[in-house]
Every structure is written in C-alpha cells, then in structure tokens.
Amino acid sequence: MPPRRTLIRILVAEHLPLVRRGLVASLDAEKDLTVIADVACGEYVVPAALELDPDVAVMDVDLPDLDGLTAAARLHEKAPRCRVLLLSAQPNPGQVRRAFAAHALGFLSIDVAPEPLADGIRRVASGRKAVDSDLAIAALTSADNPLTPREMDVLRLAAQGSASKEIAAKLYLSVGTVRNHLSRVMYKTGARNRLDAVRIASEAGWL
Description:
This protein is of the alpha/beta class. Helices cover 51% and strands 14% of the residues. It has ten helices and six strands, in the order E-H-E-H-E-H-E-H-E-H-E-H-H-H-H-H. The chain has helices spanning 17-28, 45-52, 68-78, 93-101, 114-125, 133-141, 149-159, 164-171, 175-189, 194-203; strands at 8-13, 33-39, 56-60, 83-88, 106-109, 130-131. It has a six-stranded parallel beta sheet with strand order 2-1-3-4-5-6, sandwiched between helices. Helix 7 packs across helix 10, helix 8 (164-171) crosses helix 9 (175-189) and helix 9 crosses helix 10 (194-203). The model has no long low-confidence stretch (mean pLDDT 88).
C-alpha cells in the first residue's frame, strides 16, 4: 500500500457565512486537506492559530475588525509556523505587494476554482509561493512610487476623509501648501481628483 499522505491542517477566516461554508466544504472534500477551524473576524485568527496550530491560514483580505494583511503580519510574529494564503474579491498588484510584505506566501482571487485553491494551499504548506501569474507580473512591473514622503503624508490623511484644513492642522502646514501637495499628487498619478489619486495609490500598493 502507498504511504498515507499527511493531512494539511487549515484555518479559514472569512466574514461572509455562505462563502466561509463553501470554502470549508470545498477544502474538506480534498483527501489531503482538513479544515480544523473557521472564524469570521480577523481578531480571532491569531488566538485560533495559537490554540490549534494549523499548517495554513486561508484568509480574506477584507476581514472585519482586523484586515487579512494585518492578521497575516501578526501570524508571522506570533505563530510563524502557520503559513498564509490570502484571498481577495478585488485583487490588484498593490495588494499582492502588501501581502508579501506581510509575509503571506499565497495570494489568489476569492473567485478561484476549487482545484487551483487546493493546489495553492499545498504549495504554501510546503513553503512555496502561490499567486496568480498575471497578478505576479503586474506587481513586479508596476511603477515605483513617484510621491515624496510629505505628499504621501497628505494623501494618507486625504484617504481617511480629512479636508484640506484638517490635513493642514495635523501636519502643521498652510492650507495652500496642502492644496499644492494634492495638486502635485494628482499630476504625478494622473488622477482626476483626490479620490482618484487615493484609488490609484492604493491599487499600486503605495498606501
């Protein structure tokens, strides 16, 4: 008889109940995979990993309370044996770069078919990377950040919804200087307005 394959123990973190149940059912159907826990919130990821010692955590990027990228970074610090594969409903090169910066090994669209997802988990469990090839190429070839540190400070506050007066007060700048920074940000990114600049910078992984 061939030797029995070692089960890969999986922690699933997904806030949408139907999606979470679908992930659990799909992964449990694989002979070498088993889901040992599923949670709906990013705050529960590290405690569950410390208690149950999974091999791989499969997590949505957009978890409530604590997002998947932050949870991945905390897992690397608190439970480094647990490797991470992140799923995203709207994957983009910036997310890929941030995922690898958070020590995730895998990054796939949440719409991925069951077979590639299972294969991705096997790769991650063995210490290899698993990422959609088009996303990987886009992440590697995306432009470097053209914004200065001060322009990034202004843009981060704009991304939080702060008006020019609020940004000026927080950064000890004049309102005119803030507006000049925002104008340069929009010029450098090719954005139509500040919201578009936030979107472009986020998708590029600069924010």
